[in-house]
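Troubleshooting log. The previous structure file for this entry was overwritten by mistake, so regenerating from the original sequence record. Sequence copied from the archived sheet and checked twice against the printout by T.R.
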Amino acid sequence: MTNTVMTTKELSNRIAEQIGMTKRQSDQLLSAAVDVITEALNEDRTVQLQNFGSLSIKERPSREVMNPKTGEKLMADPKRVIIFAANPALKQQVR
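Regenerated output below.
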């Protein structure tokens, strides 16, 4: 199985075909959806998409790391990471 990438442009084109809208309209729709999802995540909200999954933010605390070249121990800064949890319906369809 080869793993190819679906680009934003291809996704937008396929949405336009399925819904029967222009490519420009589907570009705007996809762009707006990404903007709204990003805003919600920045507000620490979980985004749940029915039959797809949920996106949320998790705070990772600072932790001790080591420089592999020098062996020096450093503290990595805390960071926020995006977590995706697939919906069981999506998992079932992908199998």
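The first strand starts at residue 47 and ends at 49. Archived copy saved in two places this time.
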